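We were asked to recover a plausible sequence for a given structure. The inputs and outputs are reproduced exactly as logged, with field labels preserved.

PROBLEM: sequence recovery
POSITIONS: 399
GIVEN STRUCTURE:
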């Protein structure tokens, strides 16, 4: 095999691409990773507040959003599990801790996960080229097993398998590009239109006037995009432009951009009983809700939603309607903070185009798509890294 000929070319030096390359390399495949940035793993390095939430112990297909089969992720997740990656982390001597809800973080630095991947690639004989942009790729035209011809500034490459691990559009400052979607378009592969996911939402003018001064406040809440979507109990954070925090990021991936969503402002509490119990003390709704919320939020929210008289003077109907509003405060954001603040990209390569076992394109043999470029989006909390490991492993075993 000549110096410019490989069994596998992996495009993208992030979590999925590096893990796929190491997996294929361990099988004896000659592998090269092409990364257009000057360094590998930019998104890994900033993840988890610099400590990398590298997996979630409870990861199953149920924690992923896809517009195709809800079972698509099952095969890859079953064949490379959170326990498998945790064992690898421990083999590399990386100290870790569980923060909450199965979320595993490095004790020290995200850089340790990138170093793990770099060592795995080195041990598997993987060649890595950074600062390498692809000028053109096409099916191979010559004789022999090479299916792909890839033009780069440093010369052409030929390969039997081509793995696209270029990620989505989130964090453009880190080098995100639509390259993977353009490859799909080149070969007539269907793409679910991408949009920002796990992203803060922004207020319209009226809500901004009422709540824009609450920046920095955080409250316990439950959010839900619709009746057939998950309920997330997490903190909700007010920002100077809208809402953020885990509860908002989670629900953002499940709602269409123009759809309203609901917030339960008294999670774990039967709101009507709670209000009735506070009728006897002569309190207004605002005074009562200061028990559960920060005072500034109670004041701002009740100014808009509650009669300014003691609860004892409310009719039963008023109490019931107010209790319903507490259980489901319906919000209609004006928009979201977009890809610069989005943790992930929702949408991508349509899963109907891919084998769930190998991530190979059904209609284009030798072409694989893995990681975030695929229409498989995990919840907040380590799920998207686990999809990177699992999908990368699946393709690495087959490419």
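RECOVERED SEQUENCE:
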């Amino acid at each position: 095999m000549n110096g410019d000929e490989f069994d596998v070319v992996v495009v993208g030096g992030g979590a999925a691409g590096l893990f796929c390359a190491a997996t294929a390399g361990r099988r004896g495949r000659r592998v090269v990773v092409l990364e257009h940035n000057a360094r590998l793993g930019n998104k890994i390095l900033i993840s988890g507040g610099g400590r990398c939430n590298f997996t979630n112990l409870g990861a199953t297909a149920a924690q992923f959003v896809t517009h195709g089969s809800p079972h698509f992720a099952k095969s890859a997740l079953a064949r490379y599990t959170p326990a498998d990656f945790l064992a690898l982390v421990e083999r590399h001597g990386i100290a870790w801790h569980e923060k909450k809800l199965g979320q595993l973080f490095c004790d020290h630095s995200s850089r340790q996960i990138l170093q793990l991947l770099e060592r795995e690639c080195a041990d598997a004989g993987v060649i890595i080229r950074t600062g390498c942009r692809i000028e053109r790729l096409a099916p191979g035209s010559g004789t022999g097993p090479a299916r792909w011809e890839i033009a780069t500034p440093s010369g052409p490459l030929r390969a039997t398998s081509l793995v696209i691990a270029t990620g989505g559009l989130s964090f453009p400052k880190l080098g995100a590009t639509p390259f993977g979607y353009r490859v799909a378009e080149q070969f007539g592969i269907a793409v679910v239109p991408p949009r920002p996911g796990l992203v803060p939402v922004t207020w319209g003018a009226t809500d901004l006037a009422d709540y824009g001064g609450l920046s920095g406040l955080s409250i316990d809440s439950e959010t839900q995009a619709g009746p057939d979507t998950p309920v997330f109990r997490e903190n909700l954070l007010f920002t100077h432009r809208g809402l953020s925090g885990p509860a908002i990021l989670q629900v953002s991936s499940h709602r269409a951009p123009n759809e309203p969503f609901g917030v339960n402002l008294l999670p774990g509490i039967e709101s009507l009983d709670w209000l009735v119990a506070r009728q006897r003390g002569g309190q207004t709704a605002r005074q009562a809700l200061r028990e559960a919320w920060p005072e500034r939020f109670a004041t701002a929210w009740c100014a808009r939603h509650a009669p300014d008289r003691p609860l004892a003077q409310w009719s039963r109907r008023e109490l019931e309607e107010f209790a319903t509003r507490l259980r489901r405060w319906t919000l209609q954001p004006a928009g979201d903070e977009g890809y610069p603040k989005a943790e992930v990209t929702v949408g991508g390569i349509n899963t109907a185009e891919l084998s769930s076992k190998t991530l190979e394109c059904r209609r284009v043999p030798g072409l694989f798509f893995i990681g975030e470029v695929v229409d498989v989006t995990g919840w907040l909390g380590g799920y998207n890294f686990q999809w990177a490991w699992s999908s990368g492993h699946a393709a690495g075993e087959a490419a």
